[in-house]
Amino acid sequence: MMMREEINSGQLERLLNEENGILSGKDFILRLTSYMNQEMTLRKEETSSLDRKEDNRRLCYLSAEFLTGRLLHQNLLALGILDRVKELASRHNLNLTDVLEEECDPGLGNGGLGRLASCFLDSLVHLDLPATGYGICYRFGLFKQSLQDERQKEQPDNWRHEDLWGQENRSKCYRIPFGGSVDISCNESGELKFKLIPEFEILAISVDYPVSSTYNNRVQPLRLWKSEAPEGFDLDLFNRGDHGKAWKQINTAESLTAVLYPGDEAESGKKLRLKQQYFFVSASLQDMMAEFRETHDPHWTAFPDKYVIQLNDTHPVLAIPELMRLFLDQEGLSWEEAWNICTRVFAYTNHTVLEEALEKWPVSSLRELLPRIMLIIEEIQRRLEEESGTPSIIQNEYVHMAALAVYGSFSVNGVAALHSRLLTETVLKDWYIRFPQRFNNKTNGITHRRWLMQCNPALTNLINDLIGNEWQRKPHLLSGLNQYKDDSSVLERLGRIKQGNKELFNRWIHMEKGLNCPPHYLFDFQVKRIHEYKRQLLNILSILQKYRALKNNPDIQEIPHLFLMGGKAAPGYYMAKEIIHLACRCSSVINNDPLCRDKLQLLFLPGYNVTMGEKIFPASELSQQISTAGKEASGTGNMKFMMNGALTLGTMDGANIEIFKASGKENNIPFGMSSEEVVHYRKEYNPKTFIEGNQEIKALFQEIENGLLGNPDEFRDLLEHLFKEDPYLVLPELEAHTAAISKGERLYSDKQNWLQKSLMNIASSGIFSSDRTIGEYASDIWKLSARKAD
Ligand SMILES: *Cc1c(COP(=O)(O)O)cnc(C)c1O
Asked: List-wise, which residues carry N6-(pyridoxal phosphate)lysine (predicted)?
C-alpha cells in the first residue's frame, strides 16, 4: 500500500520537548498519544479511501467481546517511532518500559473468545485484508479481581477514565428501536407491509480504536458502540413536566452498554443482554449499509460481493433477522430477495458444545423487546417447516440462537478439529445432516506478534540470531529451529533466556502483587477462567496428593516445583468461587509448612488478564491444559505457552491434540481419556463407589475431614458436589494427572533434554499463529483478497 509521508517527527519533538519543563509519566503518555491518535486517524482515513478505490470485499467481524490488551507498544511500533520516543522519554528522566506499564488494559471481554477476536483483527491488518471489528463499548469492563480472606473480591473497572485511544465520532451514530408494536397493512398488490412503531429508541455512538500494522501503513477500526438517549427524546417529557420519567429514560439508555456480563461459557438469559446484542448488531448493520450506499448504487443483491459478516459465537446472531428487517421494511425488498442476500453474507463460528452455554431466548422477551424481529424469526421458522426433515429454531417457546445461525449462514465452523467434528456429531447433528456442505473447521490461533515478539524480546532475538527474521512474516518458518535441537550451546542460551524471563516475572509479580516466585523453582502454570470443565480442582487435588506424599516421606528429593494458578470466576458461579477459595487455602497451608520449602509451593495470582499473560507466558515451563476431553472447544492459552517454550501437560482435548501432533507427544506430557472414552466412562460412573474402591483418594478426603485444610465444613459444598456428581470426571483422572506431574518433574531434572523439548515446541508453534487461521478464513470462507502491491 502507498507510503504516507514520513511521520512528521518535528511535531513529535516539539510536543515532547523537555525545554518547556519535565513531564511526569502520565503527562508524557497523554501528549504522546494525542499525537499518535492524530497520525493514526489520518492513516485510518487513507486506508479507508484506498479500500474504497479498490472496492474489494470487506470483512466485518461481529463480536460482543474484544480483549485488546494494551495498545501503546504496538502503536509505537506501527508508527515506527519506538526508538525515538525511548530517547525523548529519557530526557524527562523516564524509562519507556515503566511508561508502558502505566497504560490500562481494557477488559472488554471475559477470556478466550474476546482475545481471539483481537488476535484476528491483528492478523487481518498485518495481512493487509480490509476488515472492521464491531462490538460494544462497555463503560465498565470485566471486574477487577483481588483476594480478601482467601476469596475472590470483585471491583468495578472504570477503564474509560484512563482510555487513551477511543475516538468518539458523533457523526457516526444510529437510532436503535426497542419495544412497541408492528402495524401490518396490505398494499395494492396484496403484499403485506410491516411498520414498526417503537416504544423508544436509543442512540448508538461509535467509538473507534485503531488496529495498526507494523508491516504496512494500514490502520483499520475496531468500532465499538456506546448507548445514549437520543436528543429531543427527553425534551418532550421535560416540557410536560415529567422530569422523573425523563431522567429514567436517559438512565435506561445509558445503562444499556454500562456493563459486560461476566459469565464465561454461561448463557445468562437476561433482557439487558438481549438488548445489548440487538443494539450492537443493528448499529453495525446500519453502518455497513450506510457505507455501501455511499459507494454503490443500492442494488442490494451486490451487498454480499462487498461485505461478509463473521458472527463470533451466537451473541451477534440477531444480525440475521435484523438485516432481514432493514431489507424488508426500509429497503422494500421481497422476502426471497432479502433471504437470498442474508444467506450469502453471514458466516457463523461456534465456540462451545456445553449445553449451559448454548444461547436461547424466550419468545416472550423477544416479542416484548423486539416485536418485528420476533415476527421475522417466526416467518423464518414457518418457511423452514415447509422443508421436510429440518430441525427447528423455535422450541418450547425458546428461540435457539445456534439453530438460527446455522440456517441463516453459508458457513458454520468450529474452532479445533475435534470440536468441529463433535459439533456435527452432537449439538448440531441434525443441522449437519441437512446442510453438510456448510460445516468446516478453522483451528484457532494467536498473534505471534503480541504473544512472542512483543512479550518475549529475548527469545525473539535468539530466534532471529539463529534463523534470521523471515519467520516474523511467515511464522511456519519457525520450524527452522529444529536444526538446533542437538546444539548444546543453543539449548544453553534458550535455558538462560527462560531463567531471565523467570527473574523478570518474579520482579514484576512482586512489584504488582507482593508475591514471591523464586526462579529456581519449576514454573508450572494453570491460568484461565475458573470453570468446572477446565478442572482447576483436578490440579489442586493433585497438589494435595503431592503434599501428602511429601509429609509421609519428607526425605524424598523433589525438584522445586511452583504451581501458579490464576483466573477470574464469574461472580454468580458459586462452585468456581469455592475452587478459588480452596486454592487459596491450600496455598497457605502448603507454603507455610517448612517441609515444603524448596520442594513444593502453590500461589494463586489474582487479576489474570492480557497484561499479566504477557508476563506469564515468557516465564512458563509447564502449561497445564487439563479440561475433560470433549469440553474445551480449542483453547488458545495452550498456544501462547507453547510458542514461548513451555511443555504442555494436558488432555486429548481441543487444540491440545493438534499441539501434540505438531510438536510430538514425546515432547509434551499428554494424559487421560479420549473424548470417546469420557462419554463411555460417564455412563457407568458413580463417584461414591469410585472413592470406596480407591485407597489413595479415600485417604485424601479422610485427611481433609480430619482438618488438613482447617475446618472441613468450609469446603463441604464443593466436596459434596464432587462426591455426588463429579460431572467432569475429576476423581477418575486424578491418578493419571498426578502421575503426569511426576513425569514432568522427572523430565525437568534432565535440563538438556527438557530444553530440547522446549525448543521443538517453539519450532512447531508456527501453525498456531492466527495469521494461519485468518489465511484459512480468508480463502475458504470470506474470499478476501489482499491489496495488490503498488
Ligand atoms: C488467551 C487468554 C485466555 C484464554 O485462555 P484458555 O486457557 O484458552 O482458556 C483467557 N484470558 C486471557 C487474558 C487470555 O490472554
From this structure: 640
433 lies in the same domain as 453: no
Q: 314 and 432: one domain?
A: yes
The pLDDT, as a whole number, for residue 237 is 63
How far is it, in rounded angstroms, from Cα 733 to Cα 650? 12
Q: Is 528 among the residues known to form the active site?
A: yes
* pLDDT beyond 70 at 759: yes
468, 433: one domain: no
In a domain, 278, yes or no: yes
CA-proximal residue: ligand 1, atom 12 (nearest): 111
Report the nearest atom of ligand 1 relative to the CA of 446: 1
CATH of residue 413: 3.40.50.2000
Residue 514 in grid coordinates = 507482593
688 is annotated as an active-site residue: no
User: Rounded to 5, what percent of the chain is helix, strand, coil?
Assistant: 55, 15, 30
Q: Assess contact for 509 and 492: CB atoms under 8 A.
A: no
485 is catalytic: no
Residue 12 lies in a domain: no
User: Given strand 411-414, what is the order of strands in its sheet?
Assistant: 167-178, 200-212, 219-228, 131-136, 58-62, 307-312, 346-349, 411-414, 439-441
- pLDDT over 70 (residue 448): yes
Residues 6+ apart with CB under 8 A from 331: 298, 300
Query: CB-based contacts of 183: which residues, under 8 Å, 6+ apart?
Result: 194, 195, 196, 197
Separation of CA 768 and ligand 1 centre (Å): 14
615 is catalytic: no
One domain, residues 486 and 605 = yes
427 pLDDT tier (thresholds 50, 70, 90): very high
Q: Is the distance from the beta carbon of residue 637 to the nearest atom of ligand 1 less than 6 Å? A: yes
Is 372 marked active-site? no
Given pLDDT bands bounded at 50, 70 and 90, which one contains residue 3?
very low
Residue nearest to atom 1 of ligand 1 (CA): 637
The atom number, within ligand 1, closest to the CA of 634 reads 8
pLDDT of the residue at 108: 98
If you search the block for the grid coordinates 461476566, which residue do you land on?
A: 262
Quick check: is 400 catalytic? no
- Is 4's pLDDT higher than 80? no
Instruction: Please pick, among 372, 534, 561, 599, the residue that the annotation labels catalytic.
Output: 534
639 lines ligand 1 (CB under 6 A): no
Q: Are residues 374 and 457 in the same domain?
A: no
Q: For 368-412, what is each residue's pLDDT tens digit?
A: 999 999 999 999 999 999 987 778 999 999 999 999 999 999 999
Which whole-number Å values give the CA distances from 698 to 121, 320, 474, 685, in the listed order? 50, 53, 52, 17
Whether residue 235 is found in the same domain as residue 309: yes
Residues 460 and 581 in one domain: yes
How confident is residue 2, by pLDDT bands cut at 50, 70 and 90? very low
- Does the beta carbon of 635 sit less than 6 angstroms from any atom of ligand 1? yes
**Exactly one of 218, 351, 737, 757 is catalytic; which is it?**
351
| 705 lies in some domain | no
Between the CA of 485 and the centroid of ligand 1 the distance, in Å, is: 29
Does ligand 1 have an atom closer than 6 angstroms to the CB of 112? yes
Task: For residue 26, name the pLDDT band (cuts at 50, 70, 90).
Answer: very high
d(CA 438, CA 442): 13
Tell me which residue range forms the domain holding 195.
55-69+105-145+164-444+777-782
Average pLDDT over residues 167-186: 95
Task: Report the range of poorest mean pLDDT among 240-244, 468-472, 738-742.
Answer: 240-244
Phi, psi of 207 (to 5 degrees): -125, 115
Residue 422 within any structural domain of the chain: yes
Length of the chain: 790
Same domain as 468, residue 428: no
Q: Is 111 in the pocket of ligand 1 (CB under 6 A)?
A: yes
Distance of CA 656 from the midpoint of ligand 1 (Å): 14
Strand 144-148 with 192-197, pairing: unpaired
Q: Into how many domains does the chain fold?
A: 2
